């Protein structure tokens, strides 16, 4: 496969007198082996994701196929590999953002050898991600994911929960059986991450039971970091571990992923209100219908505006489909949409600071930068 060459680059200097590390002014175009390749349209992130999916899928399928019968069937349906009746399907198994972060971080600090060594870790992170999706769909009563009925609507609540548990156990087994010296530290880090994910989900569900005016922005940001940022940070950190990186670099990669994860969640919450169902695979305004206290909603509710009062009144009564458009407009008029977009840009800036600490060579960091830009520039 051809390599793409580029001129040598350096991170531009940070603001004078701030003591901050250099910041990227433009997206680097990676050229080194193990870094991202450009696709026909020059879309680096798409090429990185496609390469990660191609690398991880065989490992992921082999792992899922090792599950006992019922768990295997539900998992294969959830991943889009089978229809409900067990016949083969060519469905969408997701974008592979998290495994791509593992592999790209490993390559950035350790080259192609580290990327190959991190394949099990990339599959394990994807298994954990899908464990959370199976459980989230049950708790949120979501009826569609990836343009098909969710597993709990097909197999029942109990079986969907059990399949999620099986995927989590499988992820830890994959790491524990790995021959790499980094495996032990990786198991501990991923297990700690799962505990943090559960705490974040607990915070999310308990917030839904509280009155609209009782939830603060700080609470929701902490919850979002635990629920979304933690796994993205863990993915990057695992890549660093398999590259043999030092503690400081691994910690900076974790912080990079967490900040990018918060930016991701902010944009995802915007899409959850204003996204196109034909592209998201979910009904329009699903988060509003579920009365979720997403980041744009809480920002709107705490804005002190007349629109905030209207939104609180709407959120305080049972959902009525005819109020959906009015509710979305109230969030926007109260500044929730603009706040979320500004915050996403700020979190992306913080992520770049951490990336510069972890990977001083901007050429090597290009793949991680492309992925971070991809998850924060989605429109659906």
Automatic annotation (TrEMBL):
Recorded family membership: Belongs to the FPP/GGPP synthase family.
Annotated keywords: Magnesium, Metal-binding, Transferase
Chain intervals with Pro residues compositional bias: 13-27
PANTHER family associated with the record: GERANYLGERANYL DIPHOSPHATE SYNTHASE (PTHR12001:SF86), GERANYLGERANYL PYROPHOSPHATE SYNTHASE (PTHR12001)
SUPFAM superfamilies named in the record: Terpenoid synthases
Keyword presence, Cell wall biogenesis/degradation: no
Species per Swiss-Prot/TrEMBL record: Streptomyces shenzhenensis
Gene3D superfamilies: Farnesyl Diphosphate Synthase
Keyword Hydrolase: no
Superkingdom of source: Bacteria
Ranges where the record places region Disordered: 1-43
GO molecular-function term, one example from the UniProt record: metal ion binding
Protein name: Polyprenyl synthetase
InterPro entries recorded: Isoprenoid_synthase_dom_sf, Polyprenyl_synt, Polyprenyl_synt_CS
GO terms (BP aspect): isoprenoid biosynthetic process
């Amino acid at each position: 496969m051809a390599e793409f060459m580029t001129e040598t680059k350096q991170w531009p200097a940070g603001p004078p007198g701030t003591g901050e590390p250099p910041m990227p002014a433009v997206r680097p175009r990676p050229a080194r082996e193990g870094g991202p390749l450009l696709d026909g349209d020059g879309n680096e992130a798409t090429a990185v994701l496609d390469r990660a999916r191609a690398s991880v899928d065989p490992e992921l399928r082999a792992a899922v196929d090792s599950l006992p019968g019922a768990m295997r069937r539900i998992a294969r349906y959830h991943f889009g590999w089978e229809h409900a009746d067990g016949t083969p399907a060519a469905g969408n198994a997701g974008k592979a953002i998290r495994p791509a972060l593992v592999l790209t971080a490993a390559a950035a600090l350790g080259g192609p050898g580290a990327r190959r060594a991190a394949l099990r870790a990339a599959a394990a992170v994807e298994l954990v991600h899908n464990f959370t999706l199976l459980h989230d769909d049950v708790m949120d009563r979501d009826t569609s994911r990836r343009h098909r009925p969710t597993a709990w609507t097909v197999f029942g609540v109990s079986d969907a929960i059990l399949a999620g548990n099986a995927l989590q156990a499988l992820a830890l087994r994959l790491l524990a059986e790995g021959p790499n010296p980094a495996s032990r530290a990786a198991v501990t880090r991923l297990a700690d991450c799962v505990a943090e994910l559960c705490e974040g989900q607990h915070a999310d569900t308990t917030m839904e039971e509280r009155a609209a005016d009782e939830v603060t922005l700080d609470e929701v940001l902490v919850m979002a970091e635990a629920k979304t940022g933690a796994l993205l940070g863990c993915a990057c950190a695992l890549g660093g571990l398999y590259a043999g990186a030092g503690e400081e670099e691994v910690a900076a990669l974790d912080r990079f992923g967490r900040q990018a994860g918060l930016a991701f969640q902010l944009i995802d919450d915007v899409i959850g209100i204003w996204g196109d169902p034909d592209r998201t695979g979910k009904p329009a305004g699903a988060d509003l219908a579920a009365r979720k206290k997403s980041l744009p909603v809480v920002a709107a509710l705490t804005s002190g505006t007349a629109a905030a009062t209207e939104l609180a009144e709407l959120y305080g009564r049972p959902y009525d489909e005819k109020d959906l458009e009015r509710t979305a407009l109230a969030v926007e008029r109260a500044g929730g949409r603009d706040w979320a977009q500004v915050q996403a840009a700020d979190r992306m800036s913080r992520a770049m600071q951490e990336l510069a600490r972890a990977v001083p060579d901007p050429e090597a960091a290009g793949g991680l930068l492309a992925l971070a830009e991809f998850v924060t520039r989605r429109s659906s």
